[in-house]
């Protein structure tokens, strides 16, 4: 299942004429199998053993290419480092205020908020984001 998803993503890149370097392949593979919404630094640390010549800049560059091709979503949180994920099924995030962990949860998309906001403000709404904050079960035990 995960293999098929990876292959499909690679086909998408090939169709857009993007070269599949071993690093690019590894970054994509890592992201697809990581539930932690890693930062570029996390990805770098996870892969540097395999690619001793790779720099953090290479990771950023690969993430940018993947994002531009719609394969990776970047999550920004104010001044904190961006986090990245490959999942495109609609979902929301709950974030631990102690350790920064981000966990996915599913809830019917809050479409009515968008149409209400449109009606009240006259904006054309493009999307919304909602985050829930708290203390994760690991941190609660400390
Ligand atoms: Zn935590
Ligand atoms: Zn997520």
Give a verbal description of the structure.
There is one protein chain. The protein folds into 2 domains: 2-85, Orthogonal Bundle (Arc Repressor Mutant, subunit A), CATH 1.10.10; 92-140, Ferric-uptake regulator, C-terminal dimerisarion domain (Dna Ligase, domain 1), CATH 3.30.1490.190. The protein has helices at residues 2-15, 22-32, 40-47, 56-68, 111-121, 137-140; strands at residues 73-77, 80-85, 92-96, 102-105, 131-134. By secondary structure, it is α+β, with helices and mostly antiparallel strands. The longest helix is centred in the N-terminal third of the chain and has 14 residues, at 2-15. The strands form 2 sheets. It has a 3-stranded mixed beta sheet, with no helix packed on it. Strands 1-2 form a two-stranded antiparallel sheet. Helix 1 (2-15) crosses helix 2 and helix 3 (40-47) crosses helix 4 (56-68). The site of one zinc ion (ZN) has 7 residues, from helix 6.
């Amino acid at each position: 299942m995960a293999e098929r998803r990876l292959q499909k993503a690679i086909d998408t890149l090939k169709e857009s004429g993007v070269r599949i370097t071993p690093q690019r392949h590894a970054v994509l593979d890592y992201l697809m199998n990581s539930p932690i919404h890693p930062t570029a630094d996390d990805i770098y640390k996870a892969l540097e053993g395999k690619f001793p010549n790779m720099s953090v800049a290479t990771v950023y560059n690969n993430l940018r290419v993947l994002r531009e091709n719609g394969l990776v979503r970047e999550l920004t949180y104010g001044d904190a480092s961006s986090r990245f994920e490959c999942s495109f099924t609609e979902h929301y995030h709950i974030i631990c205020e102690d350790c920064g962990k981000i966990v996915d949860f599913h809830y019917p998309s809050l479409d009515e908020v968008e149409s209400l906001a449109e009606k009240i403000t006259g904006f054309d709404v493009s999307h919304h984001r909602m985050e829930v904050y708290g203390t994760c079960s690991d941190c609660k035990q400390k």
